[in-house]
Amino acid sequence: MNEERDNWREEDISEALKRFKSSLVSGRAKYFDVSEFEGIVEQLMEEGDLQSSEIAAKQGIQIHPNAVPLHLKYAQILLSKGKYDQAQKYLDFAERVENTNPDVHLLRGSASLIMGNEDLAKASFKKAIKVGNGETDDILYHVGSAFVQIGEISEAISYFKKALKLNPKHELALYDLAFFTDQIGDYKNSIKYYNRFIDYDVYNYSAWFNLGIVYNKADMHDKAIEAYEYTLAINENFHMALFNIGNALANSGRFKEAIDKYREFLEFDPDNDDAYCYIGECYLNLDDQLLSEHNYQKAISINPENDTAHFGVGLIMWIAKKYDRSIDYINKAIKIDKQNSEYWLTLGKVSSDAEYLDDAIKAYKQGARVDAENTEIWLTWAETLMKNGDTNGAIRILKKAIDNNDDSMLKYRLVAILLGNRKRKEAYEWLRSAMLQDFENINYLFDIYPRALKSKQLKKVVDDFRRGDK
């Protein structure tokens, strides 16, 4: 019976929405009851038509001035449009009339969050929970969703967990926990939540697909393939699962199988330039530069703005020692995506191999500007300077790197150069700092400067550190 009532309501709202839209065209306002206005506003908001939803809410309030649901809908619309002060007026009215309506306090809390007043928001959310009347799990879920809107994902997750604790079968909380734990890199818990969600909704192909993505990120490639295959079993038209099976196969080093899967995907989407790029990468990993370039060029012919394809051809030209052509293609990739630090790093390496030292330094410098946390850029920059006899320049660059990048590898590299330059006192100071930060990386120092293993003084510094005499 409940399903029948829901169907009737959907049909009523659908008919009411048609009548409302025709009234907008004719310019003649029509009468609707409160529930119809509420449904019209909801539908228009779902369609992304904020202007029409605002008109509907205004008309509803004019006809039904004491209808709290319409005041709340209007406040929600105003908040969506950034009209926070106006929204407060309608929330104030709703709170005066229905102080025990949790939706009032939820919306006020959301408004406070958007305006940057987290303490006031949490006070409002606490009120919503207090008057929840058995719907506490849903309220906690909506509080979490409000924190998602302002980008506080960790806070959102804590509320989703509280909702799930109260109601272990809360599917929305489960799904969002799965999704957002993935976003913060907590793959173990994401997998756990997706599997729990699938236990309740085993035929949800989107959940299977997302689970496959997380398995792939967690380097569980066989599990990822299995999840994508379930996706296809449920929805054979969800062809992106084929593409992602190719990704999982490639990530596990099964490049020939990956190529077959990408080609299978291309039967359904023949102009997908990204698929040709991935095939090109697979052939590159199989040391077949000819077929690799062919597929990268195919991607470029489909989409001349595919920076990955230009970069891929640049790598092939680099391998073939065709440095000028390599630089040309990498520059095309950079023109499309100037913020990709790997492009700048590779441009620097190729320029260095071509003995264009000034160009190499410019590329490293720009790469470091784009992404100071890319440790390899700084290390390669220093190596290039060392290779060209500029030891002092390498020391200066590494010190600059350390100011901008909190990676102990930079300090250990600096120690090696200082030791090689007989600046032992300064080297040992940096060594102590590096060991304090990350002692395990000391093996990197021994790898790049084996003579350190024979130094009695260095061994004493390390032993003193181990004993705690820092």
TrEMBL record:
TPR repeats lie at residues 137-170, 205-238, 239-272, 273-306, 307-340, 341-374. Keywords: Repeat, TPR repeat. Coiled coil: none annotated. Signal peptide: none annotated. Pfam families: TPR_1, TPR_11, TPR_16, TPR_19, TPR_8. Transmembrane segments: none annotated. InterPro entries: CellSynth/LPSAsmb/PSIAsmb, TPR-like_helical_dom_sf, TPR_rpt. PANTHER family: LIPOPOLYSACCHARIDE ASSEMBLY PROTEIN B, TPR REPEAT-CONTAINING PROTEIN PA4667. This is Uncharacterized protein. It comes from Draconibacterium sediminis.
